[in-house]
């Protein structure tokens, strides 16, 4: 048992905690288009969860602001980070070669994978060579992209997630809903019932300390018995041939340092040229993510430990293709901090699982369509285009402009669903003709004033689901006002409220 | 074609054609305290916000006593029963570890005592390489970590930290900033997630 575990009798909170069942938005079947709006509604049907989610995610944004404001050079750091990434990405081929050469010189085995399937096969081969049956693993969004855990399940190799949040999601058979805090959509009562079922903990004790302790106690033996460890990487340094992993739990260090075999999966966009560049990125990363000055552990792996073996798999999985997309290549600068998710009003109120994709939130809107344009064609519309994501992005990706750009691309390529296409085509025609526009506004205003609710709020009006239609102005449209007051001859002097 | 050639070829064919030189990165540390005590005070303050403990020995106190004072009420068992693995000459300890040990064998350690190569005032972080750790895993499998830090070895910020050559020479270089932590369950901060439950820094000069 844990030593400094709180006394359950004192900390038990189940009496006041919510017992609202955890919302589980439906996932789109293979080959089908994700319906974000419908899944979001399923999430919002659990009001306690929806409120908790909104509050917690916004708290991260608030803490991020507080941290950013303590650094006088914050905006300069964002600019530097963006420039370093531009420099690296425009020379990515030579930096990858430099990285590979240095890593090999340090005694690391370097592999290359075109896509997720190839990545999984390579790792499987490494495991077969070493007769690996169980693996401890730290959180990696790249491995989520690759469907790595599902693949390993299918070949009978046990993968144990060592990040508490990721372990919760693994035990629950759910995808992560946030890239930094995978179970952010869950309440502690959900975790208490899950752990009671899977780990045999007390179902009535939903104290976070108790639950974290239960998982620590359950996972420690698995860590000690594992045949191999896996990590992702936050950064890879061309100059040293090493890579950096940031965690708060120290679980990447356990995964890498306890077993003799360490395999790291690294996206090719993670490169930075020099160790000194890390100063810029490490200063930005956790401040942007959680609003803490740095993660508890920032670990630099440059060579296998004494007597150990280390492999790196460099994974493309659509990245080189995106590098060639004029409008979207700069999305490769993303350092996966999640700041854009935390600030996004749509993400906060719809929950990450409603995106039905590896990446939720604003970065998901611009990354997922490059993996599968049809499946994720709805996602770029899950945005108000308020630009807040762009404003908090530590590497200054023009996220909201890329969201808009994807809407255009998906429309041109014919990926939009029928209702959206028809409505937008009609709107396009109306907006292209001043007369038609004026007539439409008049009709709409009159309709809003006189039609009964059932005629206005129905399946045809997606906008009106969950929103009230605006009330039409009493004194007509702006054009009416203009005609009355400005159009004939001299401008009439009017005071505010004159038009009433 | 190999995957390597395919990927590099696709990058060469598609990468944006622009001349974007690498920017020069300033050190941004003009406003930090210049003298040692000021920097140590800032370090201690930042360490505390990250959940670590700054435990300066009292005048004439030996390190064994300082260690007991700092850890006694954190162990959940009598201090006399604690398994203490020390990698520093200043503290005897009662459990020896050496670099050829199987990492899984160090899981019984209650307290690991290490010396940091340097500290970072900006974040309250301490740095280790495989040389100080002996068995890397001990810094994570131990229940508690006690770190000796020479106050003369505190740099201002992370830019200065990354100008050091540890990252280019060591196999493994790690910053520890407070103990292992998680807030994955309803945002409640829990110290002692998968790694050490507490981190105590004892400022003391090198031997």
Automatic annotation (TrEMBL), chain A:
Residues 1-16 have a biased composition (Polar residues). Residues 17-38 have a biased composition (Basic and acidic residues). The keyword Repeat applies. The keyword Transmembrane helix does not apply. It comes from Salinisphaera dokdonensis CL-ES53. This is 4Fe-4S ferredoxin-type domain-containing protein. Gene3D superfamilies: Alpha-helical ferredoxin, NagB/RpiA/CoA transferase-like. InterPro entries: 4Fe4S_Fe-S-bd, 4Fe4S_Fe_S_CS, FTHF_cligase-like_sf, Helical_ferredxn, LUD_dom, LutB/LldF, NagB/RpiA_transferase-like. Pfam families: Fer4_8, LUD_dom.
TrEMBL record, chain B:
InterPro entries: FTHF_cligase-like_sf, LUD_dom, NagB/RpiA_transferase-like. Residues 108-202 form the LUD domain. This is LUD domain-containing protein. Gene3D superfamilies: NagB/RpiA/CoA transferase-like. Pfam families: LUD_dom. PANTHER family: LACTATE UTILIZATION PROTEIN C.
């Amino acid at each position: 048992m844990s030593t400094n575990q709180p006394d359950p009798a004192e900390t038990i909170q189940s009496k006041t905690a919510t017992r609202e069942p955890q919302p589980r938005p439906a996932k789109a079947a293979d080959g089908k288009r994700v319906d974000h709006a419908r899944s979001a509604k399923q999430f919002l049907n659990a009001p306690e969860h929806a409120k908790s989610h909104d509050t917690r995610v916004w708290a991260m944004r608030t803490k991020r602001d507080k941290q950013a404001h303590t650094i006088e050079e914050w905006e300069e750091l964002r600019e530097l980070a963006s420039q370093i990434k531009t420099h690296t990405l425009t020379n990515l081929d030579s930096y990858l070669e430099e990285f590979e050469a240095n890593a090999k010189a340090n005694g690391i085995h370097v592999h290359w994978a075109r896509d997720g399937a190839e990545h999984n096969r390579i790792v499987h081969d490494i495991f077969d060579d070493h007769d690996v049956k169980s693996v401890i693993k730290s959180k990696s969004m790249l491995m989520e992209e690759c469907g790595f855990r599902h693949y390993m399940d299918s070949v009978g190799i046990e993968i144990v997630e060592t990040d508490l949040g990721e372990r919760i999601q693994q035990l629950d058979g759910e995808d992560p809903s946030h890239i930094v805090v995978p179970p952010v959509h869950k309440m502690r009562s959900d975790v208490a019932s899950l752990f009671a079922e899977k780990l045999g903990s007390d179902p009535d004790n939903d104290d976070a300390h108790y639950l974290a302790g239960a998982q620590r106690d359950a996972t420690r033996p698995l860590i000690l018995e594992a045949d191999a460890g896996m990590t992702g990487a936050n950064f890879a340094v061309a100059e040293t041939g090493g890579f950096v992993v940031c965690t708060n739990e120290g679980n990447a260090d356990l995964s890498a340092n306890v077993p003799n075999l360490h395999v790291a999966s690294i996206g090719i966009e993670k490169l930075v040229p020099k160790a000194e560049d890390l100063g810029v990125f490490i200063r930005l990363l956790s401040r942007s993510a959680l609003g803490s000055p740095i993660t508890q552990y920032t670990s630099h792996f440059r060579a296998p430990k004494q007597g150990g073996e280390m492999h790196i798999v460099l994974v493309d999985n659509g990245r080189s293709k995106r590098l060639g997309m004029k409008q979207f290549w700069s999305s490769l600068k993303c350092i996966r901090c999640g700041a854009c998710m935390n600030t996004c009003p749509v993400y906060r109120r719809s929950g990450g699982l409603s995106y039905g994709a590896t990446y939720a939130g604003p970065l998901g809107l611009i990354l997922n369509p490059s993996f599968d344009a049809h499946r994720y064609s709805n996602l770029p519309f899950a945005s108000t285009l308020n630009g807040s994501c762009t404003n908090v992005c530590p590497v200054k990706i023009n996220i909201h402009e890329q969201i808009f750009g994807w809407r255009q691309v998906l429309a041109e390529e014919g990926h939009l669903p029928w209702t959206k296409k028809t409505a937008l085509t009609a709107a396009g025609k109306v907006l292209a003709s001043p007369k038609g526009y004026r007539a439409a506004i008049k009709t709409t205003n009159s309709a809003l004033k006189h039609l009964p609710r059932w005629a206005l709020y129905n399946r045809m009006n997606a906008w009106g689901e969950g929103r009230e239609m605006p009330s039409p102005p009493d004194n007509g449209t702006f054009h009416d006002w203009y005609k009355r007051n400005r159009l004939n001859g001299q401008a009439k002097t009017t005071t505010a409220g004159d038009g009433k | 074609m190999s995957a390597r050639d395919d990927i590099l070829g696709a990058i060469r064919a598609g990468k944006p054609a622009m001349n974007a030189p690498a920017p020069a990165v300033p050190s941004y540390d003009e406003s930090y305290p210049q003298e040692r005590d000021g920097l140590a005070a800032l370090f201690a303050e930042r360490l505390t916000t990250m959940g670590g403990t700054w435990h300066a020995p009292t005048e004439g106190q030996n390190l064994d006593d300082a260690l007991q004072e700092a850890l006694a009420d954190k162990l959940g068992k009598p201090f006399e029963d604690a398994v203490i693995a020390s990698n520093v000459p200043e503290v005897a300890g009662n459990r020896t570890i050496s670099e050829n040990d199987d990492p899984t064998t160090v899981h019984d350690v209650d307290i690991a005592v290490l010396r940091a190569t340097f500290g970072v005032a900006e974040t309250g972080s301490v740095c280790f390489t495989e040389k100080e750790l002996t068995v890397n895993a001990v810094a994570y499998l131990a229940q508690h970590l006690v770190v000796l830090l020479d106050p003369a070895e505190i740099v201002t910020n992370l830019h200065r930290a990354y100008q050091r050559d540890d990252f280019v020479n060591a196999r493994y270089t790690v910053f520890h900033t407070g103990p292992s932590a998680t807030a994955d369950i309803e945002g409640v901060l829990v110290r002692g997630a998968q790694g050490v439950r507490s981190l105590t820094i004892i400022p003391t000069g090198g031997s």
